[in-house]
Each structure stands twice: as structure tokens, then as C-alpha cells.
Q: What sequence folds into this?
């Protein structure tokens, strides 16, 4: 079942979020993950959906609102998608992506954007299957102040 995350989910969700961060070569920090997610839920500045079966969280997706000035509409940034390794291959990623697309429709947004590493073979196969199109007409630039 795919549903919005609640504060009751925090212990399990923080564990999944920590695994997600470790996948992207960050140090494990369960307490930091729990604090970060608690803040997102409290401030309601992101939408988090979880996949749950029999009280066990299997995966999650997190989307942040952004805006397109040229379209004068909201967009959603699908920033995080993760399914626990022992729950992969069940189509949960597609269901979580569908929850993000439904959020887009429900809020009359003009789209969902996401980024993944070129080396993420699974993601780069998954997103086209979910009807996401690779935008090769733009360059993605980033600036980081040593963080």
C-alpha cells in the first residue's frame, strides 16, 4: 500500500532514508536522518509517500515543491526514491513514482523533475519505464559552498 508518511513512521523511515544516503556515499547517520525527516513532516515542506505492507515500510519517495517562472506554475522535484533491497523487484518503485505523478495532477502542477547519476543503471532503466523523458536539451549545473 502506498500512502503519505506520518510521524509514526519516523523510526522505520529514518532507517530507509539512511540506507538511501549511504547508497549515495554519505556516512550513516540515523539520528540525523530522523531529525531531517521530522523537520520535513513538521514544516510540511515536502511530500513523503511510503510503501507499507503488514506494518513494515518497504520504500519511500520524497518530493519538494519548486516553481517554473516561464510556465507560471508549480513543479515537483522528485528528490529521493528508495526501496529496501529485500523488497526490490515487486514494482514498488513504479507505485511510488505513480504517487508522485498523482501529487502533480492533484496540485495542478506542470510536471515532475528528477535527477539521477549516470552510473545509476537501475534508475536509468526505471524512469523511462515510468514515462519520464530524458531531457538532453539542457545542461545541469551545480554550485556548492563546501557542503
A:
Amino acid at each position: 500500500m502506498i500512502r503519505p508518511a506520518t510521524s509514526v513512521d519516523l523510526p522505520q523511515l529514518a532507517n530507509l532514508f539512511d540506507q538511501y544516503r549511504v547508497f549515495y556515499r554519505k556516512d550513516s547517520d540515523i539520528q540525523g536522518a530522523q531529525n531531517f525527516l521530522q523537520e520535513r513532516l513538521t514544516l510540511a515542506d515536502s511530500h513523503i509517500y511510503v510503501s507499507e505492507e503488514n506494518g513494515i515500510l518497504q520504500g519511500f519517495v520524497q518530493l519538494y515543491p519548486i516553481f517554473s517562472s516561464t510556465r507560471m506554475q508549480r513543479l515537483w522535484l522528485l528528490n529521493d526514491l528508495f526501496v529496501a533491497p529485500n523488497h526490490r523487484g515487486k514494482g514498488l518503485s513504479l507505485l511510488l513514482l505513480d504517487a508522485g505523478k498523482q501529487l502533480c495532477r492533484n496540485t495542478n502542477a506542470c510536471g515532475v523533475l528528477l535527477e539521477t547519476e549516470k552510473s545509476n543503471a537501475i534508475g536509468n532503466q526505471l524512469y523511462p519505464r515510468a514515462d519520464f523523458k530524458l531531457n538532453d536539451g539542457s545542461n545541469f549545473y551545480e554550485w556548492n559552498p563546501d557542503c
